[in-house]
Amino acid sequence: MMRTGLAMLAVVVAVLVCGASDASAWVCRAGGLGVSTFGSSRSIERAKIIALRRCERGSALHVCTIIYCR
């Protein structure tokens, strides 16, 4: 009984410690002519794509660049 309880406690602690949260996401900012947008995701590539697509939709020339990623 005691081993089962300790094993369950170890699993819960491992999930809480290793689980990804919103704080571990990448945030990228893209800028274009008259617009600046953000994109966020767990992978940096996806965050860049999201930011660029949002920026291109709102930009007058549909040309945007990544300003930064954090």
Task: Tell me what the structure shows.
The chain is α+β, with helices and mostly antiparallel strands and 70 residues long. The chain has helices at 2-18, 44-58; strands spanning 26-32, 35-41, 64-69. The chain has a three-stranded antiparallel sheet with strand order 2-1-3. The radius of gyration is 20 Å and the shape is rod-shaped.
Q: Would you identify the regions where 5 or more consecutive residues have pLDDT less than 50? A: 15-20
Mean pLDDT: 82
Radius of gyration over C-alpha positions, nearest whole angstrom:
20 Å
Coarse morphology: rod-shaped
According to DSSP, the number of beta strands is: 3
Structure class: alpha+beta
Q: In what range is the share of β-strand residues?
A: 25-35%
Give me the number of helical elements: 2
Distance between the termini: 46 Å
For the biggest sheet, the summary is: 3 strands, antiparallel
Output the strand order for the largest sheet. Answer: 2-1-3
| Chain oligomer state | single chain
What is the succession of H and E elements?
HEEHE
